[in-house]
Design goal:
It is built from twelve helices and eight strands. It is an alpha+beta fold.
């Protein structure tokens, strides 16, 4: 165990000198700030906020404007003739025109501008319920961000302890390599003295090759896990290759007792998954009201005004025809969808069925989440007990290796027994590292689900 501790701290110091290192807490904080999925979740909240603001504008009047203009290639009105005598009876000012010839070539351009304002007074509750739905969507986006944050932090924790396990295994492997080197030196001395054969040398070399192969696998796993952890906390792979590493933390193992369990909530009501399903029930209830609102009368009032101009008239025609027209009106609208009720009744029943499904889904999820918390607690207890077992095995294996090494020097045990003892010790050390990492992951998982 002393060798294991010395190698562990030596490896940690080397890592610190060669790259920017981070503790687990620093990795978690970096993930909160820079993780890509969390940034996307924040954008979802902004989008939901904009949707909520958009829904609120439905309370405002609807204003529209239209502009129309044209010019003809030829006049629209063309005619030749003589003014009748009867025109004098219309007005004294027309008397001079009676009996005189005329040529009409008038009206070749026009424009019109209109504006309409409509204020909805009643729309079957669709505006009110639409705003409520928009608020629920915003709440859903916030809950999803909280859920994503917990999931990302759990992934970072798992990746960190998996990487730590690989580092512990590398430390154990380094100690094993030094042990085998010492065995090789002793075997070579025995070979020169004629106490052993070259088969013993071959066995030790094969074990060295086995350790080299194991080191290659661990180094590759270390490389991939380090890049994966860097990506989760927002560090680009190119930068992580040069300037990122972790500080190995040997945290004490706290026994999971009932007091720890009682300090955390055992009700799943706090879980974002259950709250999201609750929001789904609320949204579905509003969808029922929205569907009903489609088939209720819609009432509104409005204002309209227009201005138009006519052009291309002769000076004489302009004396009698207005070239500018202005007018306005106030109106009200009442729309009653009568025939829509034929299919609308079934549409509302369909929405009510979806509401019942959402309620059932929430009730089922509540039970499953309760079981999930209990499972996490059981896994935590099991992980702690596994560390205790692994610790005991590790101590026994280390003592067995020490005794085998002494016995081999005194030629009271075989080389095979010594190599087996080394293998058992290395396996016990690896099992302990795996158990410790599993405990820290199980502890983080339980806190995530029970808090």
């Amino acid at each position: 165990m002393k060798r294991y501790t010395i190698c562990f701290y030596a490896l940690t110091m080397c890592m610190t000198l060669s790259a920017q290192t981070m503790t687990l807490e620093e990795c978690l904080e970096r993930a909160r700030e820079n993780n890509h999925e969390l940034q996307m979740a924040a954008l979802e909240i902004e989008a939901a906020s904009e949707q909520k603001s958009e829904a609120f504008t439905n309370y405002f009047p609807r204003i529209s404007a239209n502009v129309m203009a044209f010019r003809l290639f030829d006049e629209m009105v063309k005619s030749d003739g003589t003014y009748p005598q009867e025109i004098a009876a219309l007005s004294p000012q027309f008397a001079p025109l009676a009996g005189t010839p005329f040529t009409v070539s008038e009206f070749n351009r026009a424009y019109a501008v209109s504006a309409t304002l409509v204020q909805p007074l009643f729309s079957g509750g669709q505006i009110v319920n639409g705003n409520k739905l928009a608020r629920i969507q915003q709440d859903v986006a916030v809950l999803k961000q909280q859920l994503t944050t917990k999931e990302i932090l759990q992934k970072v924790t798992e990746c960190y302890w998996q990487l730590a396990q690989v580092r512990y295994n590398l430390s154990t492997l380094e100690a094993a390599e030094k042990q085998i080197e010492a065995v090789m030196a002793q075997v070579e001395l025995f070979l020169k003295a004629g106490i052993t054969t070259r088969n013993s040398v071959l066995k030790v070399r094969l074990r060295q090759q086995e350790l080299s192969s194991a080191r290659l696998k661990l180094e590759n796993a270390d490389h991939v896990l380090r890049l994966l952890l860097a990506q989760q906390i927002g560090i680009a792979p190119a930068e992580a290759e040069k300037n990122f590493d972790i500080v190995l933390e040997d945290k004490p193992l706290e026994q999971p007792i009932e007091a720890m369990k009682g300090a955390l909530s055992l009700s799943p009501d706090h879980r974002e998954e259950l709250q999201l399903l609750g929001k789904k029930v609320e949204a579905q209830a509003l969808q029922v009201k929205m569907e009903r609102g489609k088939h209720l009368p819609h009432l509104g009032i409005g204002l309209a005004g227009y201005h138009s101009g006519l052009g291309g008239f002769s000076e004489k025609a302009e004396q009698y025809l207005p070239s500018r027209l202005n007018n306005g009106l106030v109106f009200g609208t009442l729309s009653i969808p009568i025939s829509d009720w034929w299919g609308g009744i079934h549409a509302m029943k369909r929405q009510k069925i979806k509401l019942l499904q959402a309620k059932s889904e929430r009730e089922n999820a509540q039970q499953m989440l309760q079981i999930d918390i209990e499972r996490a607690w059981t896994n935590l207890q099991e992980a702690y007990k596994q560390t205790q077992i692994a610790q005991t095995c590790c101590e026994e294996a280390a003592e067995n290796l020490r005794m085998s090494n002494d016995q081999y020097r005194m030629s009271t045990c075989t080389l095979t027994d010594l190599l087996d003892a080394e293998t058992l010790n290395r396996q016990a050390q690896n099992d302990l590292a795996r158990a410790k990492a599993a405990y820290q992951i199980a502890l983080s998982d339980y806190r995530r689900k029970a808090q």
